[in-house]
Amino acid sequence: MGPLRSKIFLLSSALAIGISFADKDQRHVEGWPPPRFQERQKDRNDLVDRYIVPHHPKIKDQRVLEAMKNVPRHRLIPSHLAAQAYDDNPLPIGHGQTISQPYIVAYMTDLLELEKGDKVLEIGTGSGYQAAVLAEITPHVYSIEIVEALADQAEKRLRDLGYGTIQVRKGDGYEGWPEEKPFDAIIVTAASGHVPPPLIRQLKVGGKLVIPVGGRFSVQRIVRVTKRKDGQLRTESLLPVRFVPLTGRAERES
Amino acid sequence: MTGKNRTQINTIPLAISSSWMAGGLVALELSLIRCFSVSHHHHFTALAISTALLGWGCSGTLLQMMGRRDSRSVGWLWGAIPACALSIPLVFRGVQALQVDLEFLIYRPQLIYQVWLAGILLMIPFVLGSFFLGQVIRLHTDQASFLYGSQLLGGGLGGAGITICMWHFSPVRLLTICALGVCMAGIPLCFCVGGPRKRWFGILAGSMLMIWWIAPFHLRVAEYKDLAKIRELVKQGDAKPIGYRYSPRGSFMSFSSDLFHTTLFASLTAPMGPPDQTWILWDGELISPVFLIENLDEASILRYTLEQVAYAMRAPNSVALLDETGGVAVWLAKLNACQRIVVVQQEKALRELASQSGAEKIYSDNEVTILSMNSRHFLETTKDSFDLIYVVSAQAPAAGISSLLALRETPLLTVEAFEAAINRLTPQGLFLVVRGLQTPARDNVKVLSTAVHALERLGIDHPGNHLVQVRNYLAAATLVSREPFGDRDRLILETLAEKLLLDIPWAPGIPPQAGMQYDLRWDEKGQLQDEYGIAARAILAGGEQRRKFYAAWPWFVAPARDDCPFFYRFFRLAGWPQIKKIYGRHWMQNAELGPLLLVLFLVQGLFTGILVLILPCWFLQRRRWKTHGQEKSWTRKSLMTWIHVGFLGLAYMTVEMGAIHAFTILWGDPVQAAAWVVSSFLLLSGLGGLSHRSATLHPGLSRMISLLVFVTFLFWMAMIHGTLPISSSSRTLLLALVLIPSSFLMGRPFPALLRSLGRSDQEGLPWAWGINGLMSVLAASGTVLVSVFAGISVAFLLGSIFYMAVSFTIPRVRS
Questions:
Q1: Which residues of A touch B (CB under 8 A)?
Q2: Which residues are within 8 A (CB) of B317 and not within 5 positions of it... i.e. 6 or more apart?
Q3: What value of ipTM does the predicted structure carry?
Q4: Per-residue pLDDT for A101 more than 60?
Q5: Tens of pLDDT along B41-57?
Q6: Which residue of B has its CA nearest to A223?
Q7: Who has the most CB within 10 Å: B73, B204, B324, B425?
Q8: Which chain B residues in 470-499 lie under 8 Å from chain A, judged by CB atoms?
Q9: Cβ of B754: how many Cβ atoms within 10 Å?
Q10: pTM of the model
Q11: Where are the alpha helices (DSSP H) in B220-288?
């Protein structure tokens, strides 16, 4: 091989290697980004502009705000509650579970500091709303739900809406999703007594885990766990919240 | 059935019948308390007692409204018994269908109407039963005191009887027993009147069968209780029940599930997850996991808990585990090679259930001794010293739901209890309390303030040298040492801090920065803040700085004392602006408004009392004025009668409720205290009433009662201030002996007043019933508020003052 061909070969190889290590979002993922919905766009814009943006602590990532404007929350709740879909409140979705208050969904998503292409695990699919918001930022969303009926329902609704990259599984979220580890980010959407050790193990170095910690009916705190580059863990106790299960009555979530 | 001439009615069987009915009603009251303890929380005692009293008062008013024409009719008696009996299961089913969840009240105030409706429904059996009792007295007004006394006696026996039943039957089954018992009140009645007994027996038998058929089997539990969540898991096949036990102290259940993952506040650095476990619930709340492990290796996660700090610092050989349940704390002691492990757990049913659920192996270990006694008694009576005393019950997850638990007495978490524990330590011994974290800092600040006050009571000049508080992201551990912590302790702490990611808000010789290294918290300006360190330094500074800190903190964190033993009372009116600022528009849900539930019961009782007690009297009075063409005004005599009966109602219930709280401290159990105090008061008051046939209202009687209650107040003060150098058991006995004469005499004034009114002022009778009932209802909830915010001693003092006020209104009634 002559010198010129060698150089061309080396350059091509370098380019190929560079592409393979390029930002994941340069690669095409089928079914992503999800479709856009015109229905009730104004309501979503109002929700973000009137309730989420002015709320303290502020949402730093503009992509989160855009995601909140895109996801059709009214399509992920029982139809008789559609009129309340864009109030900044949690709502009952059956089986003693709720769809979270939009501000809290935005806040917890913001804490994850997601990048496009990140792999994120959600514990507690519920209605699928949080998973859909995550999927607006990154296609690689894995979600676990312990209530089988809810898992099935969420999976179907998300697929129908075009969120085809979200993978939903029924199971015990405590054990995480070991087959797909490590994750860049993990989010737990139900109050928990502690951070499950399996989730810590499945978190990538540099990754973040966000979870409301506290008793089931006491005041919880949103805690963010960061796995630093040296492997050390640090926690931050952030917003006090109250994740309260509903029984068919609308409740308020701090 | 037609009305019978009262001379044909034999008094003795009538007395037995009404005694039985009274017993059934008191049993129902206590059964409701037991049921509410499981479905909600035990301080629905106030609601149950208020409801019973309202029913009693309402029936009296109803009887008076019937007038003379039916006063001799036996027919009402026949109807009242099956009606009362059948209403018990029906009403309870109705209340369950309403799904009253008081925790949701702060989210949706509209639910208050459901609470009110539930109260009205619950009143029905008491109205019907009390109506029967009142009508019995109207049949034989000349034997009124005998019949009234027998009713009180029956009430006492009924209370004692149902308390015994609590050992063997589930709470909801107790209601069936009460209903059947009420039905049986009809049997003696058959032998005291003529007529077709077969038909009457048939009605009773049919009622009993109907009761059995409609009796509720299932107790609905509020959504916020762990039992509700576990039942969901059982329904979907993810959990299984293991066993249950009942006692007057509680209903205990255990479940197994692969989804149970309690780690007892283990550090994030724990490389392993928790072992398989079962859960034990007490009145629907998780109190302890039971690790299903066979050897110490499987318990390794416990080395990453905050409790391990105590073991690492002092390597204790002898350990006392107070209110230990489930064996986990025992595993930790074994893991650290303790040679002598004493488990103090009063409740035998709980120990049996824990053994059945997987703790048998660890409990039967040679190095483990199990003592069946109240932990507070243990601290005050044991002659042994320990290297480590650990209040295991303080870390129970359920204890974090402070809002509704704010009304719960905590004999182990008072200054006096901490002092007693520190006195039982060896020179190098440690006293340990672990609690979960709250935002803003709360429980652990109070634990630290309690420890500081206890050390000061022991005469220690620099409490800060004897205290360490460490925390991770979940909980904090407070350690108290008899000897000052030294350099060796500091080195161990620093090593552990790195291994377990511990922040150290307070330890002698360790800089403040150690309080914010691993679990970061920010203030509103975005600055790193160590709330626990700030609190510790302020409290330890003492004097004005400490006072200012207590006044400025959003929560009430001054320590609980034996006279006011409500550790979970965190509510401060002055703290609301700060809570609002922290929680924004949802501040009300997080302001720990538990004590305000009592205000709610008070207001509800007042409103309902006016509606069902006072208003009927008012309409009755107007009708009489119209009928007799009298001038529409009350006499001075009437007004003084009202004041007199009002004070009587206040006085009796204030003393009784004060006694319930006092014995809760002494026995460590509120439901058992309520059961025995209510029964004893009724029994003794009944005997007092039976032995006093006079209609003369003598001020000396009430003054004597006032003096005896004042002696109780003095005795209680001496007891809580430790000036009585006698054992716990002796104190309990003495308090009971001091209360016996007063409760005996307390059964006399009201029957005497009724007899007096019966002779001189018939129109005043419904008012007497109504106002006495209303004030009793207010006193039931009001006294709890007084105890929570001012102290149990103030309740006794108020009772004494009220009886003195009774004595000063008597002469005017006579005139």
A1: 56, 95-96, 146-148, 172, 174, 193-198, 200, 213-219, 221, 223, 225, 233-238, 240, 242, 244-245, 247, 249-254
A2: B338, B339, B340, B387
A3: 0.82
A4: yes
A5: 655 666 677 677 777 76
A6: B473
A7: B324
A8: 473-474
A9: 23
A10: 0.86
A11: 226-235
